[in-house]
Amino acid sequence: MSKGIAITGMGIISAIGNNVAENYDALINERKGITRVDNVETIQRDEIMVGEVKFTNSELIAQLDLPPDNNYSRTAMLGAIAAKEAIASAGITDIKKFKTGIVSGTSVGGMDMTEKCYYEYLTEKKFQKYIESHHAGDSTQKIAEQLEIEESLVTTISTACSSAANAIMLGARLIKSGKLDRVLVGGADCLSKFTINGFKTLMILSDTFNTPFDENRKGLNLGEAAAFLVLESDEIVKAENRKVLAYVKGYGNANDAFHQTASSDNGDGATLAMEKALKVAELKPSEIDYINAHGTATGNNDLSEGRAILRIFGEELPEFSSTKAYTGHTLAAAGAIEAVYSVLALQNNVIFPNLNFKTPMKEFSIIPQTELKKKELKTVLSNSFGFGGNCSAVIFSKEA
Amino acid sequence: MKKVYINSIASISPQKTFDNTIFLDEITDYNDTVIFAQDPDYKQYIPPAAARRMAKGIKMGVVASKIAMEEAGIETVDAIITGTGMGCMIDSEKFVSAIIDNNEQYLTPTSFIQSTHNTVAGQIALGMECKAYNFTYVHSAISFESALLDAKMQLESDEAEHVLVGGVEELGEHTTKVHRLINHIKPEAVAISKVLNSKTEGAVFSEGTNFFVVSNERKESCYAELVAVETFNTLQKEKVSETIETFLKENNLKAAEIDVVVFGNNGDVDFDSFYNQLSEGILSKTQQVFYKHLVGENNTVSAFGVWLASKILKTQTIPEIVKINKINPSDIKTVLCYNQYRGQNHSLVLLKKC
Amino acid sequence: MSELKEELKAKIIEQLNLEDVSVADIADDDALFGDGLGLDSIDALELIVMLDKDYGIRLSDPKEGKKIFESVQVMADYIQEHRTK
User: Which strand (E) or helix (H) includes residue B295?
Assistant: First the structure.
């Protein structure tokens, strides 16, 4: 049970970089990617800040060399770019050599095109090709098409902001059970009017840079991104002489069962998720070296998560930080983005700072790591929580 | 590895299926291109304060989950796993149209919150106060099978003892309208007796939900043993037979040993050939049944196929209305379900008598 | 004033889809949240939009709503004083 699943490749595109190297460079140089929104036309532009990938859709189409009649949503394009980098970085040249699947997470799927063409669909034939790309699974089908993954297990998870963490969890299970030899796991979500206005109605969007775990936090910045990890069985790792980047050591999922959108005051679901992850990993809390927190910078999340972390770690709290001040909250992709960052942390023995933090919260005395810190890391715990009470925790480790 | 059993079932569909004591005894005859689920008395199951924000899909999901839990005779589960290809369409449409119609002003949160794909699973957890594992799969026609596979893996490894698994789909007006434009919906009304041979493109769209309690312990109420689940993102027509034979072989079976096969024919002239090649080929001597003429097509309607298979195995009867051919096996031990949608997202589910 | 209160009651019922509640069931001083009518934080957000849309009152912090939506009486007093339409 405790044996980790090997991560042999990863890819990412986010507001702070178009690949893993660029993301790492931004992380260690404390360069955040939070700006006004450029690619979504919205009247909220001056009231919100976002973590946006600055490529336009046309530029993404060109990068992927898609034909003019393609019906890729922005989610699918971001996903395909990250997925391709992941496969290349693992050194995979023949995808069909082993039984390979995909598990991706998304919340909006093709909503960006749906909201653009909603009424136009009824009259303009040229937009109708996007009707079929609305549903959440379409982006994953497109990623499979780009990677030429055929006749295999390709599925999509949507559990709001914990989707990608759950994709990693299912991927690890699929390898453990022998259902697949190799699985690409991660998530993709693009910015859309739908989510911008949705979060706006919840009054949890900050009008300035988000400040996780700060007493005066004003809410989150939405972001868009995609990231994927390649998980491979021990047999492939051996046969192909793969370089293992890190391992998925433990995972846990629980439901807060408290409220449709808010987390419980004491973070029951979050606590349970972390407990389960530690149990699967067969690790004690004191053996966790760094926590990449969910830390969305909403009043509710940071309080609830902070309390849950205290419940698990108490006096033995390792350094923790939220990287959402860099990227914004990338919703369904967040768990994958932060998985890549967790692996980078392990590889480089470095803890990324929780930017924009000034004032400790009055409810407890814990404060996040605010400066880049070198530290020998063996294990990293990454949290992801979402609407519907969905709480997930994944543990990454240097050794199997 | 532990065995996995379907211990209870629940279905809300365009037929009167929410009553588990009957088995398609009375058929509602439709002659349409879009058919809606028949509502049970939701108030009997959901308090008004909780129901006031729920669109039809959420209500159906919550009620079906309660029926399934009741039949299994358990209070709580170790996981709640749902599948929905299109998600909460009614609230999604409400929120998108409000954004456009009001130019992003005066928007309210309820429809946004309810539009999230995992709303049904979240509401079930809230209602049951169940803090266990909670997942939602959203991959078109294999959304339900993904959920079923996840449940099966956890039960086999004994990580869970009881799992509530279900699929749910609701019709949204605008979504229906736009799918007509691209001919995914049949051009003209078709009676249920004519669906199979309708010779037109598209399907009769529908909504509904099916929930199951699956466990690694066989309960008194047991319907079937869940032997295997497999999904394929793509599958060429020419490779379907071979793929099924391989799948059966992995489960130590031959095509001839399948007593009943449940096909996903929806009368779409462009795609029914995926099934027809089997009814004329490797499964020609097998009793073939289908159900989409009764309950229409939607992304998780294949869960109705599993419902039908479970009912057949438990009652050892096959309603005439679902029969494609007349082999009439006397002892039904093994049932295979095969489904695909528009040539993609194929699934195979293998069940045995328990 | 009593007209405004009746109007508010009707709007609360409609906006929040309180099917089994009628205007007569809500007394001016009844608590709207918690043990009273049983409204929750999502309802509060709905009511904030109603204040903006129908009375031209914009709240930037959802916490402000807590006091204003204490009862129909308190709401009506607040609207009377701050309305811009």
Answer: helix B292-295
